[in-house]
Specification:
373 residues, alpha+beta, D-amino Acid Aminotransferase, Chain A, domain 2, 9-stranded mixed β-sheet, binds pyridoxal-5'-phosphate
């Protein structure tokens, strides 16, 4: 077990769950068709940070609205970060999360970049344990379903002065999840964003912050106008190098069969370092598939597909695990199809392998799973 996937001595969370939990029939109806991010479990965890007291008042309480002063700092200046991970119910009824200490570390990195207080990983993982244990009935049984966990933090100092706040609130909410993309694992079409950039060198591209998403929505809308499901981001300086897709990282498959190899854009500081991306570098090696990090340009992608050198492209992230990319369109570089536009065999194999590890269908050979209950 690597040090970064382990943890000791979790934070003490006071338990004050709701007195009026959802009845069984209503909950089962939600779990039958959960969608994504629409319904939430009965409880949430919250904790406060102030300059004088540090982190305090960590407690599990009933899910409910927040009361905010209109001059609360984050509403104006956007000190807000989040994470996303899932809890899976295994066949034996036990519940596990996938590499939660990695999310804890990334959350701390995001906080540092936005000049926010860092949440200790014992509190991050401790909050997940407390909420999943309390709301365990909300973790769906089927293999493609899970309980999506959304940790987030924002500044709560009241006042319009522009400076790092002196007070923060951490919250954890949970939402049962079906398949992320409504089309299931059917390939997505992507729009290369020539005009809008997501992140620039020295910016916040590496941080999982709310503002990155706010800045991305106009490009997502442009993609939809061109009949595409998702947007693909290019580097800010040359508008030439592929970075990532919407809220997911990208992988390119060169060749096929035994000679297939993978290439994923290198982490330059403007890409979000995905935990799924990182896990797939290892899973590919396990399967005997060479996987490298490097540079890939629009031209490389277009010409690679034309020559057949690039056989498959897929995106990866916690919410959708792996999603094949079938079609590419852009304003300046034209349109093309990846492979036959369908789901390629390497994409399908990696997806199944990672899902099997997460759901306990095969052994957890890298000690990535964290048992909760
Ligand atoms: C969260 C996120 C990802 C994927 O990260 P995972 O840890 O694999 O879920 C990729 N890109 C962006 C922009 C993200 O916000």
């Amino acid at each position: 077990m690597t040090a970064t996937d382990a943890g000791t001595g979790l934070w003490d969370i006071a338990l004050n769950p709701t007195a009026t939990p959802t009845d069984d029939a209503t909950r089962e109806a939600v779990l039958a068709d959960p969608g994504f991010g629409r319904k939430f479990t009965d409880n949430m965890v919250r904790a406060k940070w102030t300059a004088e007291r540090g982190w305090h008042d960590a407690e599990l309480v009933g899910y409910g609205p927040l009361l905010l002063d209109p001059a609360t700092n984050f509403i104006h200046y956007g000190q807000a970060i989040f994470e996303g991970l899932k809890a899976y119910r295994h066949a034996d009824g036990s519940i596990k999360t996938f590499r939660p200490f990695r999310n804890a570390q990334r959350f701390a990195n995001s906080a540092r970049r936005l000049a926010m207080a860092e949440l200790p990983e014992e509190l991050f993982v401790g909050s997940i344990e407390a909420l999943v244990r309390e709301d365990r009935e909300w973790v769906p049984q089927d293999a493609e379903k899970s309980l999506y966990l959304r940790p987030f933090m924002f500044s709560t100092e009241i006042g319009l002065g522009v400076k790092p706040a002196d007070a923060y609130e951490y919250l954890l909410i949970a939402s049962p999840a079906g398949a992320y993309f409504p089309k299931g694992i059917k390939p997505v079409s992507v729009w290369l964003s020539d005009d809008y950039v997501r992140a620039a060198p020295g910016g916040t591209g590496e941080a999982k912050c709310a503002g990155n998403y706010a800045a991305s929505l106009i490009a997502q809308a442009e993609a939809s106008q061109h009949g595409c499901d998702q947007v693909v981001w290019l580097d800010a300086a040359e508008r030439k190098w592929i970075e990532e897709m919407g809220g997911m990282n990208l992988y390119f498959v060169y060749g096929s069969g035994d000679s297939a190899r993978l290439l994923t854009p290198r982490l330059t500081g403007s890409l979000l370092p995905g935990i799924t991306r990182d896990s797939l570098l290892t899973v590919a090696a396990d399967l005997g598939i060479r996987a490298d990090e490097g540079e890939i340009s629009i031209e490389d992608w277009k010409e690679g597909c034309a020559s057949g050198e690039i056989s498959e492209v897929f995106a990866c992230g916690t919410a959708a695990v792996i999603t094949p990319v079938g079609e590419v369109k852009s304003r300046t570089s034209g349109a093309w199809t990846v492979g036959d536009g369908g789901t390629g065999p390497i994409t399908a194999r990696l997806r199944q392998e990672l899902l099997d590890i997460q759901t306990g269908a095969i052994p957890d050979r890298h000690n990535w799973l964290h048992a909760i209950c």
